[in-house]
Amino acid sequence: MRVHDARTDHPMRSMTRALVAVAAGSSLLAAAALAGAAWAAATNSSAGASTASTAPKTVLRVDQVGYSLSETKRAYALTAHDLAGRAFVVRDDGGRAVYRGTIAAGDDRGRWSPSYGHVFELDFSRLTQGGSYTVELDDGVDTVASVPFAIATAATLFTPVLDSVATFFSSQRDGRDVIAGNLDRRPSHLDDVDATVYETAGLFPDPDSEVPGELIPRLNANGAELRRDVEGGWFDAGDYLKFVQTTSYAVTMLAIAEQRAGRTPVVSGEIAHGLTWLDKMWDDDERVLYHQVGLGTGNGEFTGDHDEWRLPEADDALDIPRDAVPGSEGAASYFLKYRPVFAANTAGEPLSPNLAGRVAASFALAAQRDSDAGLHESAAGWFEKAKHVYELADSDWPVEERPLVTTEPRSYYPEDSYLDDLALGGAELARAAILLGDLDLAAELVVEAAGYAAAAEGSLLNLYDTSALANAELVTAIRALESAGRPVEGGAEIEAELLAQLEASGLAAAESFARSDPFSAVSDPAEWDVVSHTFGSIAVVRLAEQLTGDRSYADVASGARNWALGANAWGLSFVIGTGADFPQCPHHQIGNLLARPEAGLTLEGAVVNGPNGSEWTDPADPEWWNPGFVDDCPAGRVDRLAAFHSPAADGERGPSDGYRGTRFLDWSGVWSTSEPAIDFTASALLALSLEATADASAPSENVASRVDDAA
Ranges for the Cellulase Ig-like domain (predicted)? Predict the structure, then answer.
């Protein structure tokens, strides 16, 4: 979980708004979602807070993408009224009632806020006919309806979403190979092609501060500044830093998603783009891993990336000589134009095992992709690089004495686990070795990686814990070796242990939380990274299902996806561009300066942090709002979602007195809720790829629908 993520927690300065004149295109599903956008906007802006004489308007929340044919289907009524005994109806796109149900007292899942004293669950699981629908309800005061949603096969619903989500990675591209897209992106940071490498030792004199000291260039064998081509890659989040820590995670998630759901143009193109940059960051001859481009914070003499709110190409336009002294007169922005590069090790020295494991996984997956495509020489080259990285991993890294290498400063991503990364790296190397015909090496790698997996403490899949994915990939490798006639010694016992670990990766806790949450959320919406953890839970459930056939947690995955895609208090899909209503004002420089949602120009595919605790989302706290530093969105800073926040009782965060103590602020100045990131988006893409291939022919084990009559 991210703690006080400091990537963009810095004052920003405004710059002139860029003009965009791009016609927005949309897929069939996106077009269908747009049909409900006006409804969603009207509903979310008119709900209003309660007064002494007027209750807020009841609103209905649904999964805005839709429901697969046979899964559990739930809508939620957020209301001030007791709806027990009232009827609801599902109508098709012609207005015909196709399903009727009655709300029971037991369907009340509890209070949400002082204004909304009830959240009722409306189950219509027995409706299995494909089509476009809305849910309608008379609450005794008004007749209200949901946004339109679809019922279809899982592949029909979610396959088109994959390329849409991957479009965010296109928007994050840096370097020459930029895709203009609907935001008219331009090439940026072209000087990264010849970037200077700086030492990390002593970079932060105060270990508790994110303010750097003097940057000292690393010298080559001839005593000259060491230079490196690090052009390309993806920006990490709303800023313009580039990290191996997050890029390797993203590449791995996208590549596995591609294996599970098949190749699609945007996903495949972004995997190739990410791999090209990771390859630049690894010097296979010298055995050095470069792990970061750019520096977030300035020090009063020179400007850091987080100190300027701008488009990335503005850095290229800076008129600063290469030989200027950073921080001298006219050269305060030196490190914005000539960005520093940092290395995780010196030549041939051991690597921080978290980075080694996930980079090895990325390279091994590249070998698998090329092997599948018949590019055997290229596959062998990627495999050798993966082995070289993995061999440098220090598997006995003393975390308590020496923190893992993640980012500079480490506080941006303070990871403390690495056994999961080593397990994942070993699993992907084993799978690549099988494809390349080295079955003995594959078996050895499986046993070694399974040992790491057994010692890892697993939880829901996210940037900081890949153990569930490692367990699943190792089981796949064990079964492939069995089929190839080279079984792993003790393979049955190892597989059983891996499957037990996979199913223990936070699923019971997710199910328990979902039972207590009014909207069946699987993770606390008052904590950091709730959306990422939600998609991680979906991925773990579907991975386990594919390997075991056990659908015991199918409802957990369905409910989690419903919540992330609109069936939550705010009625938002937390994936920009997917669904009828989604965040309009991301904390993202490109999204803030170029996107125009009212014209259909959005930061498509971006997955945001999501709701957060009351202490992180106080509208009156300038630390979170950064007033005056971003291009104001929304206009006038009007909180269109104010009616749906759940303040904590007595000003304390947490589920006290039935309230969750959580807000989602859709405002560009609030990075704690509205900032997207490549790791969030990669987790979502993997989860949705698994949803697209989920078996829709068998009903969930836990379906307990109640029907008055089906019309």
Answer: 58-139
